[in-house]
Each structure stands twice: as C-alpha cells, then as structure tokens.
Design goal:
2 domains; alpha+beta; 309 residues; elongated; 11 helices; 4 strands; four-stranded antiparallel beta sheet
C-alpha cells in the first residue's frame, strides 16, 4: 500500500483537493445506484395492468434520466478544465502559495506536473466510470428520441471521446491558469475554450468518414436505410445524375410524390452514416483531442520552465 501512496508534491495536491477528489467516487456511486434501481424496476414482470403501467413509467423515467445525464456529461470537460485552471493552478499563482512548494526541494516543473498528473488520473478514472454507468442505463432505451448513438450527449457519453475531452481540459487548464493567473478569469477562459472545441468538433465529426449513399428509381419507395443510421442528406436525381433538393418537387406541385416532367427526375438518393461508423469516428475524434492536449501540455511546461527555470 505504501507504494501506491502519493509522495512529495503529489501528496500535497491530493491533500489540498481531497474533498473534490472524494466527490468523484461519490458521484459515480450515486449514479450507479440510480441506474441499477431503474433497471431493476424496468425488469419487473408485466402480467397485469398495474405492472404494465409501472413498467411504462420505469421506462419513461429511465429515458428521461439518460437524456439529462447525457447532456450533463457534455459539461464534465468544462468543469474539469475550470477546476484545473482556477483552484489548482491560478489560485496558487495569484496568492503566491506556490512559492512554498519551491522551498521544499521541488521544482516548478514538478509542482505543475503534480497538478496535471493528479487531475488527469482522476479525470480518466472518473469519466471512464461514468461512461460505464451511462452505457448500463442507456442500453434499454438506445434508439429512443434524442438517445440515438449519433445524438449529442449519448455520442460523447458512450465512448472514449469523453475521456479525450477531459484530458484536453486538464491540459488547457494548466496552460490558461499560468497565462491568466486570476482564479475566476482562468476558470471562465478555460471553460469557454473547452466548450468551443466541443462545438467545433461536434460540427465536423460527421465529415471524418465518407457517407454511404443509397439510391432507388423514382416512383418506388425511397432509399432504404438501416433504422439506426444517421441521415445526412436526401433528395432527387435527374437524368444527368445531378442532385436536387428534396423540396424541389413540393415547391412546384405542393406534393412530395409528384414532380414536374421538365425536371427529368429519374431517382432518389440518401446519404447516411451507418452505426458501424460510430467507433471509427470516436477513435478519430479522440486522436485529435489527444493531439491537442499534448500540444497544450507541451506549451504549459515550456511556459513554466521559461518563467521559473
């Protein structure tokens, strides 16, 4: 056990922020207990009307909890980054207490490294545990409204991309905390930058892989897609193969199933991402996040070395 006990600046960091560190397993435990209760309630036999009603309420409550939990986990990296930037780094620089660590045979790099390592370890363990808990509750309601594999929230909460965002937040917090050196401002800036990365990569992630295209002749049932697919585009094809908007016929005839002859419509198409694109997209996005985190971390350590060689 003594080999696992943190020493030096790592022990100091754990001691300083022990309340927040204890809050992580408490959150995971409370979330797991909630999901288990709802899953057990959901599995109750439905032999009569009363039990069928209870089953319906249990499924609705589980679906509601998973929807809110997915949205809440989107803010987890913002909280991680804000905490690292503010209470862990900027507050000590602002108050000057970091100098005490330097009097204890500790270098500035070791001081920053202890903050980064403790925050990264807790973030990885905590986010991985929350992903497992979320997947446990999400399984029975997968595919429900706003709970599909590609929806915002469930996508981040069911794969390694959430861990990547948390690690990026730790690196940004270490960098911004040194640059700003004001607790509240550093927290706000780090949260803003982390959220901006979330929005940008969320808008770009479905361009990482090429879409799958399905076509059918005009007049038949529309292009057949798997029920779990994420549709990206749909419309008509003319005789030259040119793509036309799905509303091009309705604008002229006010009917979707009747197109003017002069448009020369010959077929219909649909572009989509099948569910098999989920994990490749997750891995590509996670790789981008880890690269950004490495760059931010390198800049943070270069900065601390330049200021305190």
């Amino acid at each position: 056990m003594s080999a696992l006990t943190p020493k030096g600046p790592y022990w100091v960091t754990v001691r300083q922020h022990r309340r927040v560190l204890w809050a992580v397993p408490a959150l995971v435990g409370a979330s797991l207990a909630t999901v288990i209760v709802l899953r057990v309630w959901l599995r109750e036999p439905s032999s009569d009307q009363m039990l069928r009603t209870n089953h319906f309420y249990a499924e609705g409550l589980l679906r509601l909890c998973m929807e809110y939990a997915g949205n809440a986990l989107l803010f987890l990296p913002l909280l991680v980054g804000a905490f690292v930037a503010g209470p862990m780094v900027a507050r000590e620089l602002e108050s000057g207490t970091w100098r005490l660590a330097l009097t204890q045979s500790t270098t500035a790099r070791a001081w920053l490294g202890s903050k980064v390592l403790v925050a990264a370890a807790v973030s990885v363990a905590g986010s991985a545990a929350l992903i497992g808990v979320y997947r446990l509750g999400w399984g029975p309601v997968d595919g429900s409204w706003q709970l599909s594999w590609a929806d915002r929230g469930p996508y981040e909460a069911t794969g390694p991309v959430l861990i990547g965002y948390c690690l990026l937040a730790v690196a940004l917090g270490a960098l911004v905390g040194q640059l700003v050196r004001r607790t509240l401002v550093a927290m706000a800036v780090t949260g803003f930058v982390t959220g901006l990365v979330l929005l940008i990569l969320g808008a770009l992630r479905w361009s990482f892989l090429p879409v799958v295209t399905a076509t059918t002749p005009y007049g038949q049932v529309g292009p057949v897609m798997p029920p779990s697919a994420l549709m990206m585009d749909i419309g008509f094809l003319d005789s030259s193969g040119r793509r036309l908007s799905e509303n091009v016929c309705f604008a002229r005839t006010e009917r979707f199933d009747k197109c003017p002859a002069d448009l020369n419509i010959t077929g219909q198409y649909a572009d989509f991402h099948p569910v098999s694109h989920h994990w490749p997209t997750q891995l590509i996005e996670t790789s981008i996040l880890l690269a950004l985190a490495a760059a931010a971390l390198y800049a943070a350590f270069r900065l601390v070395h330049a200021r305190h060689p």
